[in-house]
Amino acid sequence: MALRSFCRCTLFLRHVRNVGIQTCPTISSRHTRLLSTSPIFRTDMAVPSDEDRPQFPGSKSTFTEKLEFLQPDSYDGIPVYRVMNRNGQVIDPTQDPGLDKDTIVKMYKTMTLLNTMDKILYESQRQGRISFYMTNYGEEGTHIGSAAALDPRDIVFGQYREAGVLLWRGFRIDEAMNQCYGNAGDTGKGRQMPVHYGSKELNFYTISSPLATQMPHASGAAYAIKRAGMDICVICYFGEGAASEGDAHAAFNFAATLDAPVIFFCRNNGYAISTPTKEQYRGDGIAIRGPAYGITTIRVDGNDVFAVYNVVKAARKLAVEENKPVLIEAMTYRVGHHSTSDDSSAYRSVDEVRYWDKEDHPIGRLRRYMLSKDYWDEDKEKEWMQETRKNILQEFAKAEKVKKPSPTEMMTDVYDSLPRSLEKQLEEMKQHVEQYKEHYPTDKYDEIHD
Amino acid sequence: MASITGLTCKTFAPISLFLRSLRKSLPKNLVRNASAFTFHPQDPDKSLGETAKMNLFQSLTNAMDIALATDQTAVIFGEDVAFGGVFRCTVGLADKYGKDRVFNTPLCEQGIVGFGIGMASVGATAIAEIQFADYIYPAYDQIVNEAAKFRYRSGNQFNVGGLTVRSPWGAVGHGALYHSQSPEAAFASCPGLKVVIPRGPTQAKGLLLSCIRDRNPCIYFEPKVLYRAAVEEVPVQDYMIPLSQAEVILEGNDITLVGWGTQVHVLWEVAELAKEKLGVSCELIDLQTILPWDEETVVKSVQKTGRLLIAHEAPLTGGFAAEIASTIQEQCFLHLECPIQRVCGWDTPFPHIFEPFYLPDKWRCLEAIRKAVNY
Ligand SMILES: Cc1ncc(C[n+]2csc(CCOP(=O)(O)OP(=O)(O)O)c2C)c(N)n1
Ligand SMILES: [Mg+2]
């Protein structure tokens, strides 16, 4: 069976490349037939065909008398869809998403805002002002391209390196600062490490550190949304490292078998902390797994914000209109260290990093595009960068002055209401801190209350 | 390090200066306040010969170095272990012993432990690393249903005694929900496993070598806050410390204090405070092995002191202190002068910014001693 199907996958992917982002109608109908219990499918099963096809319920294929193993390299690598080349020139004008100037400038501004916020928060961690930070350097294109193509009502299940998606949706700098400080303004009430953002208002579920756990959640949420008849979808971001977890497999397989309208968006940035992709998997990245699960799949240049936009827009249509899961593998590069706990010079060369930073950066590519269109110039750049830096530093200084939430908040929200046992523990803590107050940093926190 | 971020960041210096100007002095690290502990180094055992100064992660590297050198079947694997591990415990070992013996795995905890079980099942020595104890749960099925029951279910035809799972454990000052947990109690109800937690470099080396060579699957939790903070003169030779034996660190008459890992150091300071402030003489016991635990040493001590305090970072309810307390009330009922005291984390997830209020710190422990002796 497999060789043929694999060839067909490759054909499908080639077709996708040829027609750009439109999906192949033959393939979609094939998928629908495979996944549904349509009468056609049942007839296929029941009536032995003249061609003497295998009737095994577990697969649809043909017989062969050739003993031939399917080799991992018996098909081409999945192509990387792009709109612009590295110089920011659109290669095939039919693929230009045709966004207006304001939208493009907003994309650029959000990408650079994220970049400046990262620089400031990274540095502030180095100075011991916040406890931890993770930058998004080099992956701004994947965030903004995808976020811009979604409906703001679409539900986001993130991993942790997707702050740009939040910024695009209107997450304010002060909200980010408050979370990183875990101060009384943090909607997460100071409980989680920095960068574990969440916003009910922006349909962005709160980040959880354990990897890939959000992936099956995304499938489940999408399934429920489908049942509720809502015209929205779910997007689930994850790293190529997280894709090795068992939960990733469960998520793909559930979404495929239950036709859940979810977009799986893999940020393949080359590393999982120190582990390079060649030690993470042996196949052709994450995208190749899609067809194996029966999921419509595409690979995209994550440093090309327009390409990401096109792909997510098309994927969203498939999810919302046809109730299909879609797998997108965005190829990019983690320019920064994994986190403030990491020094990546221990496992990769500065030259390698420099290449991506200088030669193939999503911000640089979009800037070149904008310069060529006269949407942007040096003066605008200077002015915008100054303004952004000033704003962020102001918000930062403000957030630093805000007290931490009341230690009472340590005990709330464990359950919907405080159980008796915690009521007792809260009382005990209160009494203890009162009695030993000189040993607790109570002045830095709002007061303990019942 | 700055060079890399510096690549994308031409404006680094001014930002840095501005941040510094925000406040004259940096805010004192909030979390260090009440949760502070003082590491009490152990005197080197002269009978073990030559020593070298090592911190906890170095003594663990040293133990694994010896394990690889003395056992050709031994391998070390896990996420990011090849370049030395995120806590630097395996630095240099891949270079010394080769990539087939010290290697990265794909990012999958159930895979790591399952793979280790398979290796151990054919007689190899498998030393698996789970990057944080908080991330051991995807492997829970493999540990609890497979590793722990491999011998029993086969009538002792098969076993995976060669498996050791190492994992960083416990509070660190800023780890929050998912970089701070102490899940030892979750494994304490899994007959077939051994669960071990060291308190310092010398003991860590001997206990890890025992776990690696023990003929039962072992879970070895490493107090991550001690990796750098704990420094001792560690014997360089190959030595082992027996499992399932608690150590009486301080002898005393009025109350027995039981802890493991980092908490031993908190209790050590508490014992000093209790003497100074309350005139109470404490007997301090490091349990070391959680499963199967050394009942006898604790019973003997409580029969003498008549009082018991157990402290751990994990939540109170269902914590291992509950198990100890129930055994001791059964064995020492008539010796007890007061209810057994448990000072533990509250029954909440581990909170980031509230860590100083969450931990069973020295003041909470001291207060419990005061209550116990005044009962
Ligand atoms: C279950 C689990 N195991 C291990 C970790 C520790 N960890 C945090 S991030 C990370 C690497 C993730 O890499 P990837 O998914 O590629 O995302 P990236 O950091 O590259 O964005 C690891 C191993 C974790 N958070 N959760
Ligand atoms: Mg990655």
Automatic annotation (TrEMBL), chain A:
* Renumbered residue ranges of the record's region Disordered: 430-450
Catalytic reactions of this protein: N(6)-[(R)-lipoyl]-L-lysyl-[protein] + 3-methyl-2-oxobutanoate + H(+) = N(6)-[(R)-S(8)-2-methylpropanoyldihydrolipoyl]-L-lysyl-[protein] + CO2
Q: Which InterPro entries match?
A: Alpha-ketoacid_DH_E1_comp (IPR050771), DH_E1 (IPR001017), THDP-binding (IPR029061)
One MF term in the entry's GO annotations: branched-chain 2-oxo acid dehydrogenase activity
Provide the Gene Ontology terms for cellular component: mitochondrial matrix
Q: Sorted alphabetically, which keywords does the UniProt record give?
A: Metal-binding, Mitochondrion, Oxidoreductase, Potassium, Thiamine pyrophosphate, Transit peptide
> Where is it localised?
Mitochondrion matrix
The job of this chain, per UniProt, is described as: The branched-chain alpha-keto dehydrogenase complex catalyzes the overall conversion of alpha-keto acids to acyl-CoA and CO(2). It contains multiple copies of three enzymatic components: branched-chain alpha-keto acid decarboxylase (E1), lipoamide acyltransferase (E2) and lipoamide dehydrogenase (E3).
> Which named protein is this?
2-oxoisovalerate dehydrogenase subunit alpha
Organism in which the protein naturally occurs: Holothuria leucospilota
Automatic annotation (TrEMBL), chain B:
**What domain of life does the UniProt record list for this protein's source?**
Eukaryota
Q: Which reaction does it catalyse?
A: N(6)-[(R)-lipoyl]-L-lysyl-[protein] + 3-methyl-2-oxobutanoate + H(+) = N(6)-[(R)-S(8)-2-methylpropanoyldihydrolipoyl]-L-lysyl-[protein] + CO2
For this protein, what is the EC number?
1.2.4.4
Q: Name one GO cellular component term.
A: mitochondrial matrix
Fetch the InterPro entries from UniProt.
THDP-binding (IPR029061), Transketo_C/PFOR_II (IPR009014), Transketolase-like_Pyr-bd (IPR005475), Transketolase_C (IPR033248)
Task: Establish whether keyword Oxidoreductase is in the entry.
Answer: yes
Question: Looking at the keywords, is Transit peptide present?
Answer: yes
Domain Transketolase-like pyrimidine-binding, by residue range, is 54-229
Name the coenzymes or cofactors required: thiamine diphosphate
Q: Which UniProt keywords apply?
A: Mitochondrion, Oxidoreductase, Transit peptide
Quaternary context: Heterotetramer of 2 alpha/BCKDHA and 2 beta chains/BCKDHB that forms the branched-chain alpha-keto acid decarboxylase (E1) component of the BCKD complex. The branched-chain alpha-ketoacid dehydrogenase is a large complex composed of three major building blocks E1, E2 and E3. It is organized around E2, a 24-meric cubic core composed of DBT, to which are associated 6 to 12 copies of E1, and approximately 6 copies of the dehydrogenase E3, a DLD dimer.
The job of this chain, per UniProt, is described as: Together with BCKDHA forms the heterotetrameric E1 subunit of the mitochondrial branched-chain alpha-ketoacid dehydrogenase (BCKD) complex. The BCKD complex catalyzes the multi-step oxidative decarboxylation of alpha-ketoacids derived from the branched-chain amino-acids valine, leucine and isoleucine producing CO2 and acyl-CoA which is subsequently utilized to produce energy. The E1 subunit catalyzes the first step with the decarboxylation of the alpha-ketoacid forming an enzyme-product intermediate.
Protein's recorded name: 2-oxoisovalerate dehydrogenase subunit beta, mitochondrial
Organism from which the protein derives: Holothuria leucospilota (Black long sea cucumber)
